[in-house]
Design goal:
The protein starts with 11 loop residues before the first strand and ends with a helix. The protein contains 14 helices and 7 strands. It is α/β, with parallel strands linked by helices and 324 residues long. A hairpin with an 8-residue loop joins strand 5 and strand 6.
Amino acid sequence: MMAMTAPGKSPLLLLDGASLWFRAYYALPESITAPDGRPVNAVRGFIDMMAALMARTEPSRLAVCLDLNWRPQFRVDAVPSYKAHRVAEAVPGDAESEEVPETLTPQVDMIMDVLAAAGIATAGADGLEADDVLGTLAARERQDPVVVVSGDRDLLQVAADEPNEVRVLYVGRGLAKAELFGPAEVAEKYGVPLHRAGDAYAELALLRGDASDGLPGVKGVGEKTASTLMLRFGSVAALREAVLDPKSDLAQGIRAKLAAASDYLDAALPVVRVVTDADVHLSRSDIIPSTPADEARLSELASELGIANAVDRLVTALSTHCAH
């Protein structure tokens, strides 16, 4: 596997909170309970994932990014089908489903309590998704390289080599099978131009559609065709110019499909792109503390929730990180 970041540099670690605790919830059985019987599978799994990620990336700073609105109005206004299926019903076992299972909802509050006691920052932006928070914090960072951790492929668009190094650790198949993406890996895996791999990935998703987000895509254009078009034209803007140019050698079938999707392409481009200039609020400094902010409270939570071993691993990760 490629190095997580440039040698000798400690990254800013940005975690997609909901993406990770959904995965923790479905990865561990609900039989993992607190002494009073409440399920704590997501809490334990999330804390263990966070400790493991800290050990793996050796960050100097860390923020858990939150969805303050997982279905922002501007995206729904542009594409009414955006995540609409997730409103209708949760799909059992689907970590992408946003309707939170009733036994997960209280665990999110427990996770927030643990993060606060540990002294780990959370970050959010009013009216926006965690994707936008991650995108903004990654885009504005100049001090340290960045590692973004998510199970959402949309975040691949933030991978960058400049003006700052941003890597995306994609955990859609679990932490053990995590894949690390820089621009080169995005370009190779998805067949998009290397020189603008992040933006091109977002435009690829626009063309082919994304069922998990309710984006219809261009009718009749799948992943392979979308990749071919992106490699040939470099951008959706250049492709659309070719559609309008009667002298271009774009095949008539593709030209007709893209022309028919003109309104969709106008509306959906801002939907697929993550916001990179959001007004992000941090709960506290993102510098990782060497010891918990409130040891007594953290110890109380560990006992109350029956997660002492997971909390011990987190405390060890906090103290170990300071040795690097």
